[in-house]
């Protein structure tokens, strides 16, 4: 493999790792934000478009 191929593969691998890490963080953060914002009981968090958190954990309504 030449240098360009190695750099491309390495870049794609790092991008995939970062995307997976961000997705896991978002899944972990979503139920907490939904419970805080919802008017329902704490046992049934609603996951609706109005109860989303972005990658930084900011709750968007």
Give a description of the structure.
This protein has 61 residues and is mainly α. It has one domain (3-60). It is 57% helix and 7% strand. It has a two-stranded antiparallel sheet. The radius of gyration is 17 Å and the shape is rod-shaped.
Number of strands: 2
Q: What is the gyration radius calculated from CA atoms? A: 17 Å
What is the count of helical runs?
1
CA distance, first residue to last residue? 49 Å
Order of helices and strands: HEE
Number of domains: 1
Biggest sheet strand order reads: 1-2
Notable traits:
61 residues; mainly alpha; two-stranded antiparallel ribbon; 57% helix; rod-shaped
Write the layout of secondary structure elements.
Layout: H1 3-37, E1 52-53, E2 59-60
Antiparallel strand pairs: 1-2
Brief overview:
The protein has 61 residues and is mainly alpha-helical. 57% of the residues lie in helices and 7% in strands.
């Amino acid at each position: 493999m030449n240098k360009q191929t190695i750099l491309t593969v390495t870049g794609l691998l790092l991008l995939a790792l970062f995307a997976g890490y961000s997705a896991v963080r978002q899944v972990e953060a979503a139920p907490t934000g939904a419970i805080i914002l919802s008017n329902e009981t704490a046992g049934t968090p609603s996951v609706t478009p109005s109860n989303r958190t972005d990658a930084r954990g900011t709750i968007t309504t």
